[in-house]
# Entry
Amino acid sequence: EESNLRVKDENADTPTLNAVDRLEATELRALLSSASSLLRRLEQAAFIDEQDVVYYGKAVRVLNFELPMKTIVSNKKTREYVDKFEGKFQVIIDEDGTPLETQLNFKGNGRAYIVLSLKAYGTGTTKFKVVNERLVTVHQEFTNGYESTFGERETTETIQLFL
# Structure
C-alpha cells in the first residue's frame, strides 16, 4: 500500500517503507536472535536487585542492573569527555525466566575543551516473544536527546516486527 501511495505522491507519509529502508541485514539478524544480544549486554551489567511486579495482569519479576558507560558510548575517545554517566537496565521476566521486555535509561554530561558542553540522555524499550523456541524482538523504541552549546535535539525510533 505504501509503495503504491509513494508512486502517487512522492511526499506521502510511508513509515513502514522508511523503516525498511533504514533496516540493515545485521539489524534484522539481531531482532531474530535476541538471546545472544541480551546476554552480551547482561555480561557487562552489574546486578542491583529484583522486584516482583504485575505486568499486563501477570505476576513477573523485574531484574535491575547498572550499565557502564562503554555499553552506551562505544567510542573510547568520546568517553574521555564524559564527566558524569548513569546507565540503568531492567529485564522483565516471566515465571520461567523468559525475557518479556527490557528497559534502558541513561544520562550523562561532559565537556570537550572549555567551551563545548553536552548533556545526553536516552530511553529504550524492547519487547520479546518466543517463536519456535527462539527469543525474537517484536518491538523496539528508543528515544535519544541532547542539549549542547549548539542547541537541543530529541529523536525517537520505533521498530516493529510482525509475526
Q: What stands out?
A: Residues 30 and 37 are 7 Å apart (CA to CA). The longest helix spans residues 34-44.
